[in-house]
Structures are given as C-alpha cells and as structure tokens.
Specification:
With about 290 residues, the protein is mostly helical. The chain is about 65% helix and about 0% strand. It has 3 domains: about 45 residues, no CATH class; about 110 residues, Serine Threonine Protein Phosphatase 5, Tetratricopeptide repeat (Alpha Horseshoe); about 80 residues. α7 packs parallel to α9 and α11 runs antiparallel to α12. The longest helix is centred in the N-terminal third of the chain and has 29 residues.
Length: about 290
C-alpha cells in the first residue's frame, strides 16, 4: 500500500484530498448557514446565479487563465440565445462574458446591438404578445443596452465603437435626438473616432429643442471649413435652421436646397426621343438668315 501511495504524484494527490475535504465540508457549511439565517444572524444571499453573486475580481481570480475559454463558450451560447430570441438568457450570458473580459470592446458592442437593436426590433413585430407588454419589453431591452454601454465605457473609456452602438440605440429606437447628439459629441477627439461623428453631432443637435442657435453656429463652422464639408445633409440642416432662426437673406448660404427638384432644361425642338438630333431643313436655314 505504501508503494502505491509513493507512485501517486504529490500535487494531484493533494488536490484529490482537498476536493474530498471540500465535498465533505459543503453540507456542513450549508446546514450551518441555514441555521444562522433562521436565527437572523446572517443575511440571505440575493436570488441570483452563482456567477452574478461573484464580483469581477473574484470571478477572474477563480477562473484564471481559463477566462478566455469560458468567454468563448458563453459567446457561442449567447448566439444560440439570439437564434431562439431568448433575450433574457442572452443578457445573463453577457453579464458573465463582460465580467470575464471587460477590456474586449467586441463583447460590449455585441450585447448593446443584441439588446438595443435586435431585441427591441423583435418586440416591435412579435404579435404573440399584447401591445402593452411589447412596449414594456421594448423599453426594458433598450435601457438594458444603455446600461451595458455605460459599463463598457467605464471599462474602455477610449472606445468609440461602444459609444457609436449606444448612439444607434438612442437614434433608431428611442428617437432621442438630444441624447444622440451628446453621445456623438463624446466620440469627437477619441483615437479611433470616425470623421462623420463631427457632422452627426451637429445634425442631431439641430433637432434637439432649445439648441438651435448652438447647432447653427456649430454647423456653420463646419461649412466654412471648405467644400469637403458641403454635403447635402449639412446644407439641408443649415437651411432648416436659417428658417427657424429667421436668418437674414444676405447671411444665408448660397447653396441650393438639396430637397428642391431641379429644373429640367427645355429640350431643343429638333431633338427627338433617344437624343436623335434632326438637322435643320433648307427652309429653316433661310428663316434663320433672314
């Protein structure tokens, strides 16, 4: 028997002993915890899953180098939840995924997109639910997406991708022009900020009640940067503000309103359909010379 124990590596053997001790200790601790809770000497834990009860540091410390592997597995599981439209299960999966890899912005962008865009779109068309319940869940998923976005920004303050996805929720789903303008404004100056966010910040500011004059000054500054900024949407927004603010004619931009139909030039009388040009007759030439 002694020889048998000598053949077993010390470290694995120690792990086995610790595991057996943990199994034996578990029921005793559970019974003691129950007695303490009954005696009101211990507060019962919240009704959440084991992973959600653990803090981020504890979760990362427990899994160690397995964090990426577990996050990958849960990401695949979350895609299954997306396929079956199990939005609450998807949210719970991403609660753990983002805790495991908080600096991976793709996780934050994905969960904001799933909840803020896909889940809300599903609520708009799912006729199996009554209208009031669809509206309730629509708002719930939209605000869950915003909550994830705010947490993601705390973890990765330099990320523009998380904010861009957040702006899409405000713009497309909640129709909140003021919040959309604010988020696009926060993106300006970030290392990977797309060039269009400066214009989008001005466009949605122009549609935010009470900020018309500020938006007009901002968009005019962009317009004065040169031809590269003279895009149809920017010109249209400036012209709308010129009307709202009653800007005097001489101070208005000279560009034509892009929404107004252009005048079609008059076709020559001798130009047939198919752009076939018919030559003048001799009688026409005599009339021209006289």
């Amino acid at each position: 028997m002694n020889r048998l124990f000598q053949k077993i590596p010390r470290i694995p053997f120690a792990l086995v002993i610790l595991g057996l001790f943990g199994l034996a200790r578990g029921p005793v601790e559970d019974r003691l915890r129950g007695e303490l809770i009954s005696a009101k000497l211990l507060t019962p834990p919240p009704a959440e899953g084991a992973f959600e009860q653990m803090g981020q540091s504890a979760l990362m410390g427990t899994l160690g180098g397995l964090r990426s592997l577990v996050a990958t597995f849960l990401t695949l599981e979350a895609f299954d939840h997306f396929s079956t439209k199990s939005w609450d299960d998807l949210r719970q999966s991403y609660q753990i995924i983002t805790a495991l890899e908080p600096r991976d912005e793709t996780h934050w962008v994905s969960v904001i997109w799933h909840l803020g865009i896909n889940a809300t779109a599903n609520m708009e068309i799912d006729e199996r639910l009554p209208a009031f319940e669809r509206e309730r869940r629509f708002k719930e998923y939209a605000f869950q997406a915003i909550e994830f976005a705010e947490r993601g920004i705390e973890q990765i303050p330099e990320s523009s991708a998380v904010r861009i996805q957040l702006a899409e929720v405000y713009r497309e789903k909640l129709k909140d022009d003021c919040a959309t303008a604010r988020v696009y404004g926060d993106i300006i100056g970030l290392p990977d900020a797309p060039g269009y966010v400066r214009r989008f910040h001005g466009y949605f500011m122009a549609r935010c009640p009470g900020r018309e004059r500020e938006a007009y000054a901002y968009l005019m500054a962009l317009y004065q940067e040169g031809e590269r900024q003279h895009l149809p949407t920017l010109i249209k927004e400036i012209k709308n503000l010129e009307e709202k603010l009653d800007v005097p004619g001489p101070r208005r931009i000279p560009d034509a309103d892009p929404d107004r139909p252009k005048k079609t030039p008059k076709r020559p009388a001798n130009l047939l359909p198919g752009d076939i040009l018919v030559p003048f007759t001799r009688e026409d030439l005599r009339r021209i010379r006289s």
